[in-house]
């Protein structure tokens, strides 16, 4: 099953999502495969649970060797250096633009089995991690736009 994407200005996208107390809870475990399928269906490179109407701290990333699920992710360190890159978002259809992100971030989270995991991301991976973690804090990339690029085309 795939899920409907919530789009801006739905207020759920602006809420600080709740910490997941039990990563192994049935509702969390049931949501994970659906979130991943929805991400692939819509060709997203990342997705956050609030984007499917669930205000919990769960994100999935589409990375080159598969997908990565992170529960309660948080950035524990980041490079001083930032770089500009183009972003879009499934919840803000048709809008693309340049956003400044830290070039490198270190993220601590729980994996889908509830075990502690650390991810170090650079470049695009760092960008997607920052974009998705913003989602669970109620922040959209359009809040940080430096300039709009194209409209109505997905990247
Ligand atoms: Ni997004």
Automatic annotation (TrEMBL):
Q: Where is the active site?
A: 132
| Stored CDD domains | Pep_deformylase
Keyword DNA-binding belongs to the record: no
Which Gene3D superfamilies does this chain map to?
Peptide deformylase
Which species? Candidatus Kerfeldbacteria bacterium CG_4_10_14_0_8_um_filter_42_10
Q: Keyword set for this entry?
A: Hydrolase, Iron, Metal-binding, Protein biosynthesis
What EC identifiers does the entry list? 3.5.1.88
Q: Looking at the record's lineage, which domain of life comes first?
A: Bacteria
The cofactor note reads: Binds 1 Fe(2+) ion.
What PANTHER family does this protein map onto? PEPTIDE DEFORMYLASE
Q: Provide the residue positions that the database annotates as binding Fe cation.
A: 89, 131, 135
Catalysed conversion reaction: N-terminal N-formyl-L-methionyl-[peptide] + H2O = N-terminal L-methionyl-[peptide] + formate
Q: Which cofactor does it need?
A: Fe(2+)
- Molecular functions (GO terms): metal ion binding; peptide deformylase activity
UniProt-recorded name of the protein: Peptide deformylase
């Amino acid at each position: 099953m795939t899920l409907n994407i919530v789009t801006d200005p739905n207020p759920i996208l602006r809420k600080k999502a709740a910490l997941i107390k039990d990563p192994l809870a049935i509702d969390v475990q049931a949501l994970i495969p659906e979130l991943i399928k929805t991400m692939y269906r819509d060709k997203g490179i990342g997705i956050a649970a609030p984007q499917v109407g669930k205000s919990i701290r769960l994100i999935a990333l589409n990375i080159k060797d598969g997908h990565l699920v992170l529960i309660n992710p948080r950035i524990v360190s980041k490079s001083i250096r930032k770089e500009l890159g183009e972003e879009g978002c499934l919840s803000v259809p048709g809008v693309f633009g340049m956003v400044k992100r830290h070039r490198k971030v270190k993220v601590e989270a729980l994996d889908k089995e509830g075990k502690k995991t650390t991810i170090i991301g650079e470049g695009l991976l760092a960008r997607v991690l920052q974009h998705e973690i913003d989602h669970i804090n109620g922040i959209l990339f359009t809040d940080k736009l430096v300039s709009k690029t194209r409209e109505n085309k997905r990247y």
